[in-house]
Amino acid sequence: MMMRRPEEECGIFGVFNHPEASNLTYLGLYALQHRGQESCGIVSSDGSTLHAHKSMGLVADVFGNPEIFKTLPGRSAIGHVRYSTTGSSVIKNVQPINVDYSRGSIAIAHNGNIVNAQIIKDELEAYGSIFQTTMDTEIIVHLLATSKQNSLLDRITDALTRIQGAYCLLFLTESRMVAVRDPNGFRPLCLGRQGSAYVVASESCALDLIDAEFIREIEPGEVIVIDKNGLTSFFPLKKVQPTPCIFEFVYFARPDSHIFGKNVYQVRKEQGRQLAREHKVDADIVIPIPDSGVPAALGYAEESGIPFELGLIRNHYVGRTFIEPQQAIRHFGVKIKLNPVREVLKGKRVVVIDDSIVRGTTSRKIVKMIRNAGAAEVHVRISSPPTSYPCYYGIDTPNRKELISSSHSIDEIRRYITADSLGYLSEEGLMSTVGAENAGFCTACFTGGYPVKFPRLMDQDEPQMGLFEKETAEQ
């Protein structure tokens, strides 16, 4: 089994008015691959017809044949990379969704999660709608098709007034592209320009790859329409206090991206510095869990004065699945991805920096691996508060009973993962790294305070007690 972490649902990318729109979209998706590795797709417009190519797999595999781009002509395109949180991982759920209906053709790419999706779906099916996928995104298609409004903007606005939750959306028709960010601004979305073309992307790192100029972030609640007349911005939805996801800074976004007004790398490095202020320890080296722990580990090392080392090396060529040998190898799933450098670790008091602990099983295996490599002490430091609640806004986290911090104290977790000490960054410390002016971040995964309420609680399970007691016997 692979190392289990929270997964981001999707990344979206769109280009309007460029002669190589589909090729640029492919490159943009390549830069956003970290946001979803199950499937990907591109829909292009040649001005009169929409063309699509999508499949299960990584971007480089799905679009590895240059001949594919001949089937995606036109000066506009939108693309999508997906990790499923709503709907199963099958070909029918690959985005963008593209349909023909009474008002023409339209394609939709969605990043996020609609929390009232099931209620709307039940209503639509009661009036005869037939759904082809199990994704919440398809609900938007049906809302557009059944809207009584005439213009595309009004139909989109009509649909948006019905849905609740997290959504960044790209719509593509024969003649225009529309970008939408939900009023809470849970997920990042930015606007750029490449020559005379406009570009929209989940993260700014995708703009960098195609040499596009970063214009600005699309604001929470903003709807942007791009057509032959240029760009027009609207704010048709009720204004609320934005609550962008703090975990984008902790783990999901690429370190070279600029989101929510900050550079991700600098924020993560400051998280490490703050972690060192809050949880000092006498040690010989600081090592990260690669790759997400590297910036925080650098910050911890700088603030503490303890040397930074690469004590674990990551194999970057591990796919999503692999065949395990018939003769069992202990901790195989972790070992295939990470390998300790014994010469760095032997006899050392080691501070290990990671971004989060979810179930605790992977952390436990890593600590034991470091000890087996000869470390004298292992001190674990986490650059975020304990993750005690699931996310309902587009991140695939386990339900609450599977989150170890929901039912166990920090000292119980320390003993379970077999560390000499364990320290988490405080919520106040985390917020200080993004600036006091950004106090409106969503921290529901730490606090259980959900900024958008659901029609009914999606996760009724109480935290599962006894995980520590059940598995400690393995020590």
Protein structure class = alpha+beta
Residue-averaged pLDDT, rounded?
Answer: 89
- Spans with pLDDT under 50 lasting ≥5 residues? 459-475
Distance between the termini: 20 Å
Family: In the C-terminal section; belongs to the purine/pyrimidine phosphoribosyltransferase family.
GO molecular function, one term: amidophosphoribosyltransferase activity
Domain Glutamine amidotransferase type-2: 10-229
InterPro entries: GATase_2_dom (IPR017932), PRTase_dom (IPR000836), PurF (IPR005854), PurF_N (IPR035584)
Secondary structure layout plus pairing:
Elements: E1 7-8, E2 10-16, H1 21-31, E3 39-45, E4 50-56, H2 59-62, E5 76-82, E6 97-101, E7 104-114, H3 117-126, H4 137-146, H5 152-160, E8 165-172, E9 177-181, E10 190-194, E11 197-201, H6 205-209, E12 213-217, E13 223-227, E14 230-234, H7 247-252, E15 258-259, E16 262-263, H8 264-278, E17 285-288, H9 294-304, E18 312-314, H10 332-335, E19 338-340, H11 342-345, E20 349-354, H12 361-372, E21 377-382, E22 395-396, H13 410-417, E23 421-424, H14 427-432, H15 444-447, H16 467-471
Parallel strand pairs: 17-20, 20-21, 21-23
Antiparallel strand pairs: 1-22, 2-5, 2-11, 3-4, 3-5, 6-7, 7-8, 8-9, 9-13, 10-11, 10-12, 13-14, 15-16, 18-19
Helix pairs in contact: 4-5, 8-9
